[in-house]
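seq as requested:
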Amino acid sequence: MSVARIQRRDGRWRALGICGVLLTSISTSVALEIEHADSIYESHEYRVDLTIVLDAPIGRVAEVLRDYARYPSLDPSILEAKVLSRSADDSLMLYTKLRACSGLFCRTVSRVERVQEGRFELLAEVIPELSDVERGRTHTILQTLDSRTRVRYRTTVVPKFWVPSFIGRPLMVRKLREASLDMFRHVESQARSVAAP
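struct tokens:
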């Protein structure tokens, strides 16, 4: 066998080895583990239920979720987020402006929620008269799992605006599920980056 052929073969193996390392690093960097993920449209209500495990400590995950002004960095559909007021240390009014899309149909949506903070729990309920949402509720519970965090997340929303039933609703159901998972991937990434020594 010629030296040139051996060098080409070695080069191919080296390239495959590099690809393997890159794929391994990519797969390990996305550590979010999905235990349960469901989304549905029923009785005029969109609902997402998630149970996931984040590779980050519970304290840091809680900090990221309470950094409301940075919510646009967690979810690109959130255009703006700000605390309007605090009635107590653990109770606040949160305003968010979102870009809601289902297929080709998009609109900007304003939402004001009353948020109740527990140590490792958040409960947000929409105030309909101040929102483009008829009703909505998001409940997030964090649990310690060794050095990781299990998240139980449920959100329901009934929009005031029209969504086309044939195409728009199925797309919105899928979009809400994927957007929720992507949001927690960003939560995990931010929590891990700050927690790293």
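Residues 12-28 have pLDDT under 50 and may be disordered.
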